[in-house]
Design a protein that fits this description.
Elements: E1 4-5, E2 41-45, H1 55-65, H2 72-80, E3 84-86, E4 89-90, E5 103-107, E6 112-113, E7 124-128, E8 132-137, H3 154-162, E9 172-173, E10 176-177, E11 186-192, H4 195-207, E12 215-223, E13 230-234, E14 237-239, E15 247-249, E16 259-267, E17 271-278, H5 285-292, H6 316-325, E18 330-338, E19 345-349, H7 354-368
Parallel strand pairs: 1-7, 6-9, 11-18
Antiparallel strand pairs: 2-5, 3-4, 3-5, 7-8, 8-11, 10-11, 12-17, 12-18, 13-16, 14-15, 16-17, 18-19
Helix pairs in contact: 1-2, 6-7
Length: about 375
């Protein structure tokens, strides 16, 4: 495999004290103990306080207390498969009620092989350990198999790259996708290789950095200029009822809460370079939010189709570079988080791809001229 391996994890946070040495490693304190993958026989004793509780609920809480990387759904599946015993007898049902003093036992499950195809595709690996892998995704690569993209995806490539090191996310030997980038969005993303990493990263991304360590920044080229240097868009996002392949800003309870922070980096007259930071993670969030305030992304044929005629304002070199880009000008540039197993602070920065850089240079040249 022609895999390009680059370890460029930074142990520096996004902001630091001006008096702190630049190479000082930072290890953020974990809010709780890291998750672990259970091995071998697991035994739990039912106390008086848990008498009358459902088996699946008790096991879910007990596993969480030990920081086991086993979801309640996974435990319920084990019960239904006859893998859990209560006082030496096979548990009949996830809803069975427990008695004080009962002893529950099961063997930590082995992972099943994935039915998804393994493919030998090139990957830009930024960082990898036994628990997770960070990829610099190129534009044009679909993350997960779906109708119309059954093969040639990032998941297929990861199964081929990681092989037996995938220890079983949700009981299946497969990579754990906790966030996605659109097919035509480039940049850095993290994928879990183990159940422990998957559960920890899923918790982190569900919080979207509001209280946890998650940091995500995107670089975008958008149409138009701004009167302010920074701002935020707070608008619910949901499926467009008229065009099911699109998302849209929705009113009331029809959409899900979404917040995007933006910061102006450079102004080019008919276009601007902005940095976007996500506070939520909705499908097409940046593209929908920026379009909703009159600044759709350059090259976005879905949410910026009405701005195609504005390409004439860019000048010939920039217009040609935009045509060569052939996609929305959006790049996931920074991803930072606390490792869900080791609690190490990791931060990755992805450089802009060449086609984005060429467009940026053409816009700067047109501004100077």
């Amino acid at each position: 495999m022609s895999t390009k391996v680059k370890r460029r994890a930074s142990s520096r946070p996004a902001e630091r004290d001006e008096n702190e040495p630049e190479d000082t490693p930072v290890k953020a304190a974990a809010p709780h103990a890291p998750l672990v993958a259970p091995e071998g026989l697991q035994v739990f004793d039912v106390g008086a306080e848990n008498a009358g509780e459902r088996l699946d609920r008790f096991l879910g809480q007990a596993a969480a207390a030990r920081r086991f990387a086993l979801s309640r759904t996974r435990l319920k599946a084990l019960i239904e498969a006859g893998e859990v015993r209560v006082d030496e007898s096979v548990a009949p049902d996830p809803s069975m009620r427990l008695t004080a003093g009962a002893r529950i036992a099961f063997e930590a499950p082995a992972a099943e092989e994935s039915t998804l195809a393994s493919e030998d595709l090139p990957l830009a690996v930024v960082y990898e350990d036994e628990h997770l892998i960070v990829i610099d995704k190129p534009a044009g690569l679909v993350v997960h198999p779906a109708p119309g993209h059954a093969a040639g995806t990032l998941v297929n490539a990861l199964i081929g790259h990681c092989g037996k090191s995938l220890s079983g996310v949700g009981g299946i030997r497969r990579p754990g996708i906790v966030h996605r980038l659109d097919k035509d969005t480039s940049g850095v993303l993290v994928v879990a290789k183990t159940d422990a990493a998957h559960r920890g990263l899923a918790e982190l991304f569900a919080d979207h950095g509001r209280t946890g360590s998650l940091e995500r920044e995107y670089i975008a080229l958008v149409w138009g200029g701004f009167d302010a240097t920074a701002g935020k868009v707070v608008a619910p996002i949901g499926r467009d009822p008229r065009h099911r392949e699109k998302m849209a800003v929705m009113s009331g309870e029809r959409g899900r809460h979404a917040t995007t922070h933006w910061r102006l980096e450079e102004a080019f007259g008919p276009a601007s370079l902005v940095t976007c930071r996500l506070e939520t993670g909705r499908t097409h969030q940046i593209r929908v939010h920026m379009a909703s305030i009159g600044h759709p992304l350059l090259g976005d044929s879905v949410y910026g189709s009405g701005f195609k005629t504005k390409a004439a304002l860019l000048g010939d070199p920039a217009r040609s570079a935009l045509g060569a880009l052939g996609r929305q000008a959006l790049h996931a540039s920074i991803l930072g988080f606390e490792h869900p197993v080791t609690a190490e602070r990791l931060r990755f920065k992805s450089p802009l791809p060449e086609d984005f850089v060429r467009l940026l240079k053409a816009l700067r040249a047109a501004r100077v001229a």
